[in-house]
Fold these 3 entries.
Entry 1:
Amino acid sequence: MKNFDPATNIQRLDGRDACRGVNPAISDSATFTFPKAHLMTDTFHGETEGYFLYSRHWNPSNLSLCQALAAMEGTESAWCTGSGMAAITCALLHEVKSGDHIVASMTTYGGTFAFLNNYLKKFNVDCTFVNMQDLDAVKKAIRPNTKVLYTETMNNPLLRIANVPELSKMAHAAGAKLLVDNTFTPMIFSPYQLGADVVIYSMTKFVNGKNDCVAGAICGSAEYINSLIDVNSGTAMLLGPVLDPMRSSSILKNLHTLHIRMQKHGENAMYLAKRFKEVGFKYNYPGLPEHPDYALFNEMCNKGYGYGGMISIDMGTADAASKIMEIMQEKGVGYLAVSLGYFKTLFSNSGKSTSSEVPEEIQKEMGMSEGLIRFSVGLDHDIEATFQLIKESVEESKR
């Protein structure tokens, strides 16, 4: 077949010459051959293009996905991992050494909080948690040994928006890097274009959209990604959290509908927000003017993708939240489950689930109610019917 010979390890990078299919071929190989011995040596040194060494480093399927992710983010390159936490931990570990310091958002995913607050202490890396909306507090927290500012574009679960351009200026003035987790808001925000150095995803969520796998991504400059997967010193290369090529292929196909899905998620969440407001629920959604970051959101966002599919309501107590969620699941609103970005609505009590690693005193400090129910709004066709079921669930829980 023209331009494809498995014995020479050469094919077009997107794989299409291998089968003439509309989708890139899946490269189901852990290792790859070389026609000449010196090419293997050169590839080990990062001095070749179009050759593949070993799938922990690169393979054609992962490369196809990463090229698409880089195009989406406006970065030069990207690299995909076997989970979102693998992306987060590799990106952070790559920037610090013993004695270094990180400034991170107090309101962040529980697993990230635990890694920063607990695990990094093993390596004598200190982390200061601050309210990232308070730029003066961020500035005061920066030390001479600060190497990273870390935040989520839309934080979990309070849905506050990070001022990425200003945080970027602060980080760079201090000789640090700004790392941004954009899991909640793909397409809606482009953190790299706003000044972030590295953009991180749990592709398990909206990017893939089907909750059939766990995966992560790290997007940045070509120099940065090459350093991340360097065979001698690259954190991702040496820790080995590579994504399986079968999953890469699946995620790449789903990526092509992401813009449509984000629009619908946002449309449905906006509808629920307006209806929650009408009936007097204590809700939180960044798409309405009363949200404290509404203006900032509009300054930074890419127009046409909405305000995201995440919304929350506060039921006051964890017991009340639990009762309502159980009724909602029985009525078919969606599923009482962690994670987000699924085509069905998912809901959970953040303080008892995805933020449970955050100590209760810090939950209170960040302003998180124990009765907070976080919704990842699905792609429901009749969102009014969904609202009515939620309303009925709340009313029934009070009887």
Note: The chain has two domains: 16-255, 258-397.
Entry 2:
Amino acid sequence: MTAHEIDYSIYGEEMQYVEIELDPNEGVVAEAGSFMMMDNGIQMETIFGDGSQNDSGFLGKILGAGKRILTGESIFMTAFYNNLSGKRKVSFASPYPGKIIPIDLTRFGGKFICQKDAFLCAAKGVSIGIEFSKKLGRGLFGGEGFIMQKLEGDGMAFVHAGGTMAKKELQVGETMMVDTGCIIGFDQTVDYDIEFIGGIKNTIFGGEGLFFAKLQGPGTVYIQSLPFSRLAGRVLASAPRGGGKDKGEGSILGGLGDLLDGDNRF
């Protein structure tokens, strides 16, 4: 194996975290900001690119950093190494409510394609790159643009799903329609395209967007019930306007309650 062979445990329900057990000389790479806790003695290092074998040498580091810029991520990642004689543990937390999904890349033919913000952490040696869409419709209307993220190698990687995760095993020729934001990732054998909903009423009044993702097997597909974009949209829509506290929320009077409140003066 070119990637480090790590052991792990996943804890929690709604807000999960993954605990990685590192043997001597083993390491793990993670997105900046996902670190939760670690045992004393683990060495932490900020690296340029993803730190994989494909990222070796100065030119490789530049290309690796450039790939991460295209996916909208930071050009830096954080690596954690166990350089001591005993086992050490390091943990990484979910960025928002959902599930952490372990991906054994050897079971996916060494490659897994996912949304560009789904990656959480991976064994040292796994390459975190970009997957360009070759189809115009997918790039323009797929919600993720022309670029998705790809995880390559023979080690363990961990991705995050918002809300509840659904795993679907598509047979040869079997298709399913999915909201574009609800896709976490899929097998490299899955064909992914965008399909227009159609119909004037659906287009104007449907409220579900104009395009669905069409996934065709064979292969495995992971779907999330709560994309971060949907969660953020609901939070913004519920935020009080003007930066003040919405005192009428949940009351019978509603907005009239604000007018009658003692803090409002004419």
Note: Residues 247-253 have pLDDT under 50 and may be disordered.
Entry 3:
Amino acid sequence: MTRLVVGCCGFPRKKAEYFRHFHAVELQSTFYRLPRENTAARWRKEAPEGFVFTMKAWQAITHPPSSPTYRKARWSPRPEERHAYGFFRPTPQVFAAWEATRRIAALLRAEAVVFQAPPSFRPTEEHLANVRAFFRHIPRGDFLLVWEPRGTWPPDLVAELCRELGLVHGVHPLETPPVTRQVAYFRLHGRVLAPGRYAYRYRHTEADFRRIRDLVQGFPRGYVFFNNVFMWEDALRFLDFLRKG
């Protein structure tokens, strides 16, 4: 039987209300800017016993400073170091960004850390070398390491890298089936427009719920997080769908 947790990507309601309805969350704010360590410790203390945290890795690991996501972070590296960030580059700056991410994940007692790569991170020789060097050399901690490649990646290549580097394949299950089998990590971004592009203003249907349920049932352990505009409503509806089923 699948051990399944369901929640939202971020807190769409105040934490106290969220905790009354869900037993898990994927933190999104950690992608833009990591919280202070005492803030992460407070979040863990505020959560109910057994509540599951997962979190996105800091974008300094995955996204270059040219990415528009840096504007939301209100942080940018020094001009002479811009070339050293993002795309899993095996640089002191990226390894330091992982160490900072790892410390926050440890304080949260997070079960998983998600590395969401941008669509511009394509399967070139340089990028493949970066991924291998990064994941082979980082201290992992007690977390699942989830890799969500965006854009067009050959499934056989993703499977090879996940197997070689001990990664979980994070997917939008209505777009791409996962290639790893021990853990399902699903991120529901809305309706799929093109590889890596989504209509976030979308309400998932009961047919979507059936597909998600059927896919996750083949795994011993599953995480389902909604990341669309209507994530609160859809996650509650999905929980109700599972109870009725």
Note: Residues 185 and 218 are 12 Å apart (CA to CA).
